[in-house]
Design brief:
Blueprint (H helix, E strand, L loop, with lengths): L5 E9 L5 E10 L4 E5 L6 H9 L6 E6 L2 E2 L10 E4 L11 H11 L4 H15 L14 H13 L5 E5 L7 H18 L2 E6 L2 H7 L2 E6 L2 E6 L1 H6 L4 H6 L4 E8 L2 E4 L2 E5 L6 E7 L5 E2 L7 E12 L3 E9 L2 E8 L7 E6 L5 E4 L19
The structure holds adenosine-5'-diphosphate and magnesium ion.
Adenosine-5'-diphosphate binds next to α1.
């Protein structure tokens, strides 16, 4: 990997009231990378981003930007820029004045301000909008102006904290696609915070899943989705079914009864994981995961239906099936072994060897 542009080394943050927001987080970000920090509310995403920005003082650890230790440096001297939620444009200022605002604050002379904002506007292809006010812009154009204001001081890294979270669903999807395209065109390094799993998977070059102030998994979207290293990641990203029980001779046993046939060996307390779209109606082969249960709910989702199947007391399995398929009250579902994930019940960590997602010639 190239020399990282951001290096977060064992960052800890304990707030004065004793809350441990970050319990030792280490992550590097390569030049041009879009790194997404994702996790449930309260897991420490904002605290980590604000620590990189210099808006929060870590209790321990070290932060480098562009190879320079900035742990004790003031925010404006770190070479990073924060893009705020909803892009927070000044409604009564023109696009040009919005973009130039940080330069004005830094007392940059007018000609230099104009030159730099023209440059950024050209890059973002909003040059012809410089005289407009935010109300006269589309959602995507506002996003570009917000990013332009962050880029105008020439930061090495853009930091974004849930910029799309308060937008309506349709606009959010549009802006997400636009942001991905912008990142590809600009090549700027971005650290992006979201609690939205779809946003994380669609935007990221790499996803950093946080839980209770620690990294749960750090990898490509394909790897965190395809081979989650813990049961937490498996359910948080993509809502995997988890069947808790004891493995005995290729069967999963709960309260003395067999509830599933499970491919592969192993014994002990486990969570058997399987995504709803990996389950099919019918009886699979000997090496398949197989469960039987009563359909307690059928949800129409448009192109598919989601069945909620009660396979044991307190254990519901969700399966996506074709809409037009008639289903019995009691159904059997199966999944191929490649779609079955085993997690240790105690530690929550992955048990079976992870499928490989390396690109290139097979070994
Ligand atoms: P996220 O952005 O992932 O939702 P935060 O980084 O905002 O999480 O918060 C992480 C944890 O730190 C939470 O438990 C939150 O309540 C706590 N926290 C955040 N800011 C403060 C503060 N100023 N004082 C005390 N606790 C805080
Ligand atoms: Mg937050």
């Amino acid at each position: 990997m190239d020399t990282p542009i951001v290096r977060v080394d064992d960052i800890r943050k304990v707030f004065p009231d004793g809350t441990v927001a970050l319990g030792g987080v280490t992550v590097d970000c390569a030049p041009g990378e879009l790194l997404v920090l994702v996790g449930p509310s309260g897991c420490g995403k904002t605290t980590l981003l604000r620590s990189i920005a210099g808006l929060e003082t870590p209790t321990g650890g070290r932060i480098e930007v562009g190879g320079v230790d900035v742990t004790r440096e003031a925010p404006q001297r770190r070479g990073v820029a924060m893009v705020f939620q909803h892009y927070a444009l000044y409604p009564d200022k023109t696009v040009r004045d919005n973009i130039e605002f940080p330069l004005r604050m830094a007392r940059v002379p007018r000609t230099e301000r104009n030159r730099r904002s023209d440059e950024v506007a050209h890059l973002l292809q909003i040059g012809e909008l410089m005289g407009r006010r935010p109300a006269q812009l589309s959602g995507g154009q506002k996003q570009r102006v917000g990013i332009g204001r962050a880029l105008v001081r020439g930061p090495k890294v853009l930091l974004m904290d849930e910029p799309l979270s308060n937008l309506d669903a349709k606009l959010r999807v549009e802006m997400r696609a636009e942001l991905r395209a912008l990142h590809q065109a600009l090549g700027t390094t971005i650290v992006y915070v979201t609690h939205d799993q779809v946003e994380a998977l669609t935007l990221a070059d790499r996803v950093c899943v946080l839980r209770d102030g620690r990294i749960e998994q750090l990898d490509t979207p394909e790897a965190v989705f395809g081979a989650p290293s813990t049961a937490f990641v498996a359910t948080f990203l993509g809502g995997m079914n988890l069947l808790r029980g004891t493995l005995v001779d290729g069967h999963l046993v709960r309260d003395g009864s067999t509830v599933a046939r499970v491919p592969g060996g192993g014994s002990g307390e486990v969570d058997v994981g399987c995504r709803p779209d990996a389950l099919r109606l019918g009886v699979g082969g000997d090496d398949a995961l197989t469960v039987t249960g009563e359909v307690v709910l059928r949800e129409m989702l448009g192109t598919q239906s989601q069945l909620h199947v009660k396979v044991a007391d307190g254990l519901i399995v969700r399966a996506l099936v074709p809409v037009d398929l008639p289903t019995e009250r009691t159904v059997t579902l199966w999944a191929p072994p490649a779609d079955v994930h085993l997690f240790d019940a105690d530690s929550g960590t992955r048990r079976a060897p992870a499928p490989t997602f390396s690109v290139g010639a097979p070994a």
